[in-house]
Amino acid sequence: MALDQRKTDFTQVGTRPNRPDGLDKVTGKARFGADATAPGMLFGAILRSPHAHARIKHIDTSKAEALADVKAIVTRADFSDAIKPAPGLEGEQWNVLENVMAGDTALYDGHAIAAVAATSALAARDALKLIEVEYEVLPHVTDVDKAMAQDAPVIREGAADYSVPDGMHPNVVRYHESGHGDVEAGFAKADLVVEEHFVTEATHQGYIEPHACLAQLGQDGKGELWCCTQGHWYVQKNCAALLGIETSQLRVTASEIGGGFGGKTTVFIEPVALALSRKANRPVKLVMSRPEVFRATGPTASTSMDIKIGMTADGIITAAQGTFRLQGGAFPGAPADMTAMCAFAPYDLQHVQQVGYDIMSNRPKQAAYRAPGSPMAAYAVESVIDELCRKLDLDPVDVRLKNAAREGTRASYGPKFERIGLVETLEAAKAHPHYSAPLNPGQGRGISCGFWFNHGGETSVSLSLSEDGTCQISVGTPDIGGSRASMALMAAEVLGIPYESIRVTIADTATLGYNDVSHGSRVTYASGLATIKAAEDAVTKLSKRAAAKWGIPEDAVKWEDGHAVPSGPNAGNFDPLPLAEITRDMGQTGGPISGHFEATPEGAGVSFATHIVDAEVDPETGKTAVTRYTVIQDAGKAIHPTYVEGQFQGGAAQGIGWALNEEYIYGEDGRLQNAVFLDYRIPVASDLPMIDTVIVEVPNPGHPFGVRGVGETSICPPLAAIANAVSAAAGVRLHALPMSPPRILAALDQQRANNG
Given the DSSP bridges, would you call strands 557-560 and 443-452 parallel, antiparallel or unpaired? Predict the structure, then answer.
């Protein structure tokens, strides 16, 4: 099916069948990362730095090694840059290794220093207490603005790349600038210009399942790894590099995953478990504790942002400018470029400029969290647009409609948009009963748009038919959002067989071609496209078998509703031949029938959403409650609408936590102070309203069924929509997230003081 001949009439796509993994998960049968076991298994534990920044002068493991229960201890010397110094690791792989196990310097509170494998988890933890480390404590910095000040301690000399302008502090390691037009000329045309500063604190993805793995690596360089991950080919590639073994000799199997949201797209403990296993010559299981997850895995970046927007009295944006400073921990990689590019993407602007700075600090290496960078950018930009609407007494949806990006709009970051659905989400928002519903005293309403790029990535799918006419599909993208059901629905649509007759399996790295990580909202788009193409490949072979049976040319057969039929009266008068009848005899007509597809799809299509939020604020306590929430988002085509609605609601729920409660809190000593869920407060059911959803479907021209990714865009508008609602309810603009009660009270007190 050519992309310019997209299917629009569906029989199975768009329905809501039961999820294929539901029974296993509700009965406890599903196996997650910590459920794996092996004969002779040892238990691993990791010693972590108690300092935010310290030189490691000496490590003495002799007392721990003397324990009978201890079977292996590893330090940085047991990884490939030490045992195979040439050619050595470079770039991001070196950064990954440095994060997995510290070299000469501990760069943040929680940085791994050494690891132990013992006969029990208790023995391993006891052994850690006997490892003696001599530190030279160094100056540290954890704040993004302070980290780029000229007097800030240097995290690592020479980490900056060519993009950084001259004169910047060495902690500034990447620089991005994009836009078009002349912003100064644009500001001169404005009737009102608003310029404001915003900050957001780092937040964690908050997945319920901590990182866990079971590793077995022999002296011959052959290994097995079972782990909870969003991308086991990425794990395979990096673990092999970090341990100096051949990639093909390490087989990685992805377990079920108890949440990831981008935080399980890299490696933290897997190379350590493999190194311990190689040294002990036994399987090693390693499971993180919750404090370890907070201290040593990747949260979002924290930000400092300056936004300037000009607008005419009738609501036309004349110019927009943004500066985005992000710290991504003690390594390059904060998504400063994506933050800058997402910031003004929803709008058709003649004059726009965005600048991003990637800054290092003494914090853990940041990781993705649903549309990395975009939620923070939207918070700042959409807050200023809301402020302009209030000061000019303009309807916030009408203003966004006037300025909305459309097909053919030149994006703020460069290319022209193809068919997009932002206008449709705004029109749906304006027509929704929520938007016109009356507000109670003390309540405010907020609106925000959000944007995400979406991604394609390397993808491989294999499909095989059984003699009874059922189907098995092997995909390489871990199911983090219902993709097994979506793949089965798309294959069922092409093959013309029941959804229930298809089983989708997540293949390991030894049984399928390379697959990119489940991230970037790519799975339903890319794996779905590959599944459709693999099913079409199988249909071609099925039709060929039917043609041979009938004695007619292959092009005289077409496929309809699970049957081979003659393509027209000239092709002959034959009864439709069902799939199950063709597969029943396939052993005698040419052998197994299967379908395959491998590619790097590049038509992912961008995605937009509009959120409406009502909130109320208690002026005496600063307590905030979100009372109503509506998510409106373009899905292109909702393959399984229930899963799509779940993605919409999940992004909104996480956005509520991010906006109101969640933050990393570091003390003056640079140590994380709230490394458990009791102190790092994610939303619970009583914190959330009913979250209504509206699925808009503007087909993506880059997918046979019109699919757009939906998993990330849903978290882009919440921070701003909630901030706009809270600011309206409180009567004062909030410029920092989270909007916790102390911050709201401080803003109210400042307003009272300013008003005399």
Answer: unpaired
